[in-house]
Amino acid sequence: MVQLGSWRVGPAEQDPAMRDEVVFSMFYVYVLKSNVNGDLYVGSTQDLRERFRLHNNGKVKSTKVNKPWTLVYYEAYKSKEDATKREFELKIHAAKNRLKEQIKNSFEI
């Protein structure tokens, strides 16, 4: 185990090949904000960088009209089922409003 600041890094994180394997095994729930009209979009994916690129290149039907997008929030899960459950939870208006209040300063960035 290696100490990096306040983080402890185990053997998997020390080996770059293993670190990539650990990172890519996560499932992400994310919130995008449209730079055009301020709309929010909630989605989930296993590859956050690629999905963000697809949104901003107009390759996602539901978001291409309001591109470009800014990533304002994300959560990472080991389980796809947990990520999907959280995605649907955030798509409910009340939960989305609670999240907006929680991360309101991120919208100003």
What does this structure look like?
The protein has 109 residues and is an alpha+beta fold. The protein has a single domain, classed as GIY-YIG endonuclease (3-Layer(aba) Sandwich). 40% of the residues lie in helices and 27% in strands. It is built from 5 helices and 5 strands. The strands form 2 sheets. The chain has a 3-stranded antiparallel beta sheet with strand order 4-3-5. A hairpin with a 2-residue loop joins strand 1 and strand 2.
Q: Structural class given helices, strands, pairing?
A: alpha+beta
The low-pLDDT segments are: 1-10
Could you name the CATH topology? Answer: GIY-YIG endonuclease
Strand percentage: 25-35%
Sheet with the most strands: spatial strand order: 4-3-5
How big is the Rg?
A: 16 Å
CATH architecture: 3-Layer(aba) Sandwich
Count of discrete alpha- or pi-helical segments spanning 4 or more residues? 5
Helix content: 40-55%
Sketch the major β-sheet. 3 strands, antiparallel
Structure summary:
The longest helix is centred in the C-terminal third of the chain and has 12 residues.
Tag the structure with descriptive keywords.
disordered N terminus; 109 residues; GIY-YIG endonuclease; two-stranded antiparallel sheet; alpha+beta
Task: Indicate the topology.
Elements: E1 2-4, E2 7-9, H1 11-14, H2 16-24, E3 27-34, E4 40-45, H3 48-56, E5 69-77, H4 80-91, H5 93-102
Antiparallel strand pairs: 1-2, 3-4, 3-5
